[in-house]
Amino acid sequence: MILQLLRNATQWLTINNKQILIDPMLAPRGAYPAVAGTGNEIRNPTVDLPIDAEALDTLLSQVDAVLLTHLHRDHWDLVAQERLPKDMLILCQPADADKLKETGFTNITVIEESLNWEGISISRTGGQHGTGEIGIRMGIVSGYVLEHGGHRLYIAGDTIWCDEVKLALDRYQPHVIVVNGGAARFETGDPIVMDIKDILEVCRYAPDARVYVVHLEAVNHSREDRNEVRAALRNAGLEGQCFVPDNGEFFLR
Asked: A Pfam family in this protein (predicted)?
């Protein structure tokens, strides 16, 4: 497995010689308005992609499948929808299939529980995109465990620390865990993705796994940056287990 962080939750996974684009947000910096109700008007994405237009063209020409945890704009944006061919294989949660069809995509494979694609086992996991009424409004989200050659990678998706995450860790015992940090939130309510406290819980619950934190410094409602997360990991003595890759970094080889 080779995994590269592009920006936010957008990752480029090479597994069993297949190229999977995860949660693509491909627009240039400032292409979209700020997320409403978050206390600032900073346009999204808040940073550019770490690759130039030519490199992005090359990357998109090599995609074998797109894996979507859900359809919020910072995981499946208009540029991705426009740039990817409509017959591209889209792997998604059941809740999103109809919306994808409405936007013209024709090669959709729903992952109900699990499937085997090109020798790769992909299992869908649950999550909670926030708490209370806000969590309900944020909708259904999924994570995925991908396994090949005895290696198991858990992409947790947009979720807080919750029973669904614990269940995934217990059931699949992943070797590598990728969590979405940043403590994004609205002006009222709790974080809708993992904050530092949640990240530390993941590390302590799965001490034998390597943990990577993405989804940082790219959307206007994030509250915690890379430096804060790294400092918390150092203070907790977890810097040898949990890592915070930069945009563009290959963090799994």
From this structure: Lactamase_B_2
